[in-house]
Structures are given as structure tokens and as C-alpha cells.
Amino acid sequence: MTPTLILPGLNGSNDGHWQRFWLQDNAESRLVEQDDWKSPRVEAWTNRLEEVLVQQGPAYIVAHSLGCLLAAKCADRPSAKLIKGALLVAPCDLSTTENLHPGAIHFGRMPTRVLPFPTITVGSLNDIYMPLESLSLYGRLWKTQVRNIGPAGHINIESGFGRWTGGYELLTLLKMNAKANRNYAQPQAQGVEVLAARAIKTSTSR
Questions:
Q1: Which residues 6+ apart lie within 8 Å of 85 measured at CB?
Q2: What was the pLDDT predicted at 180?
Q3: Which of 20, 32, 139, 186 has the fewest C-beta atoms lying within 10 Å of its C-beta?
């Protein structure tokens, strides 16, 4: 079975976060542990992810916040060929995040290259870390399939996202698209569209 790598963002994902439940609920999942969650440095974080990919082999990625940018920054690196697909949940805008956490983020510039692996990007209407217009912009630049799930904040513990079964549905959708080797930005099968709709409507466990 293809493993799933879990990529948290700044400060990691604490107990109660949907990524922690993902690790409990999915035996094939593995957390990519970073040495410093409080002061992310792009070189160190990227090197760690690439080390795990080389050790683990081809894998899917489930990322949150700054972890989404980590995955995106692999677009022009050899490790990209080992990423079978990525579910990017609540990606953050670097300039906005740096303003909210001054001096903590050392992640260079926002990634703008087209992502060479299938992706689904999940955002919300009121994420303080990613203005809606920025989400739309990076969706176009990355050529990712964007799913807006409404007023869901940063899709984290504070906005009520504990065990988020809708995320499992979206990863299943991503895998279907990847395995079918179709244009993941334009899913065509009716069954895929139904699954996507179910995933977006699935409520979180609070």
C-alpha cells in the first residue's frame, strides 16, 4: 500500500488536530517530523521531507498550512517524482503569515511553479492566513483543483476541525484521479464528482 506522509505547519499539529486523528485512523500514514516546529527554515524542512521520500519511496502527501508550501517547493526538485499526489489543506500566504508571526518564518518566497503531481487544494472563505483572492491566485499558478469549503477558518483545531472525515474522502478522490492518469484539474467521471461533493459536505468532529 502506498504510504501517506503527513506534513504539519508552524508549531506542528497538536493533539486534537485533524492530522493527528489521520495518523491514528490510517495505518499507512507517517508524520514527517521536523527538528524545529517553532522556527521553520525551508532548507531544513525540505531536506527532511526529501530524506523521508527517498527512504519511504513513492508516497501521497497530506499537508496543512506551511506544510502545503513545503510540498509545493518540491516542484522543481528531483523528489517531486516520488510524490504521487498531494492534498493541500489551508495553505498559508507567506507574507500574511510572516506578519502574524514576526521573525518565526524563514521560508523564502511563495512557490509559484506549476505543481508536477496531482493536487487538491482545500481552502475557506475566512482563513486569516490566506486571503480568498490569494487562494485563487495560487490555485491558478499551481494549476491545482481548489475546493472552497466555506467559512472554515484555517481548518484547524480553533475552527473546529478535529477528526475530519471529509479529508479522507478528498484523498480518495485524489488517488482516483492519480491512478486514472487523467487531468486532475478537470475530473470527468460522475462518480468522482459525487465523491467530491460528499467530501465537502462532510462535517468535522468537534
A1: 60, 61, 117, 118, 119, 174, 175, 177, 178, 184
A2: 76
A3: 186
